[in-house]
Structure formats: C-alpha cells, structure tokens
Design goal:
By secondary structure, the protein is of the alpha+beta class. The protein has a single domain, classed as Nuclear Transport Factor 2, Chain: A (Roll). It is built from 3 helices and 6 strands. Strands 2-1-6-5-4-3 form a 6-stranded mixed beta sheet. The longest helix is centred in the first third of the chain and has 18 residues. It is globular, with a radius of gyration of 16 Å.
Length: 147
C-alpha cells in the first residue's frame, strides 16, 4: 500500500508518536495511545495485563531503564480496514545498565490498533522473544537479517 493512503498515513503517524513518547520516557503520552480495554502480552513479568496493570508496568519499565538508548522498529507491516489495524515489526530495545554496559536485543512486536473518536489507539500489545524449545532459554542474540 502506498504511503498516500490517509488511513495508513494516520497509523504511521500514531505509531511514530507512540515511539517518540517512549524514547522521551513520557509516561502520560505513552498512556494516551492505549484504549481503556487494552489487553497486553508483554515479554516479561506476567502472562497478560489489563489496562491499569499494564500502564503500571510501563511506569516500572521506564523507571528500570532510565538510560535507554534505543526503542526502534524495523520491517513494519500494517494491515488495516477503516477502523481496525494490525501492525507487526521487529523491535530493538537497548539501554545502559548500572555498570555502564550497553544491553539490547531484538524482539517481536504485534499491535492491534482501533479507531476511537477519530484517533488510532492500541487495544492489544504483544512483545515476545523467541526461545529454544530444548533448553527453554530466550534467544536474545538473534539478528533481523539472520535466517
């Protein structure tokens, strides 16, 4: 689809605003992108989150990672209708730990977006990392272009 599609342009704009809010650690702006009935499957802490718990989780993440260096999407794909959209991409998240070392990894992100009162809002987040079925270890060293 072309970037001249108004719906697609609006979605890309909202996704960019969400990313910029995260990069600024702007908790209020991050929260403004989620619906009241958001259901999230984050890669850490618990199996699923509802709105209040998920927003509290975002606050904890921002506090745990005050020195984040990157929160970037690669290979964004969007499928949409007039009022619903699914976005999926690879996500690179990195920060500096308390020893001054950069720690980061690639993960997978899928989001459900819904048009509400003229604005696109996230009703579903799913962050995940692949894992080795034999050892159960998360595979944080994978790179996007590796086959």
């Amino acid at each position: 689809m072309s970037q001249t599609n108004p719906t697609l342009s609006q979605l890309h704009n909202q996704i960019d605003q969400w990313l910029q809010a995260i990069k600024r650690s702007d908790f209020a702006a991050i929260c403004s992108h989620y619906t009241e009935d958001v259901r999230a499957f984050d890669a850490v802490k618990q199996l699923q989150f509802r709105q209040a718990d998920y927003l509290a989780h975002w606050q904890q993440c921002l506090e745990m990672c005050p020195n984040h260096l990157a929160f970037d999407l690669k290979d964004i794909q969007i499928r949409h209708s007039a009022d619903l959209a699914i976005m999926y991409a690879l996500l690179y998240c990195a920060g500096v730990n308390d020893k001054g070392e950069v720690q980061g990894c690639w993960m997978r992100l899928t989001q459900g977006w819904q048009q509400q009162q003229g604005q696109w809002r996230i009703f579903h987040d799913h962050f995940s990392a692949p894992f080795d079925m034999v050892t159960g270890a998360a595979l944080f060293d994978l790179q996007p272009d590796a086959t």
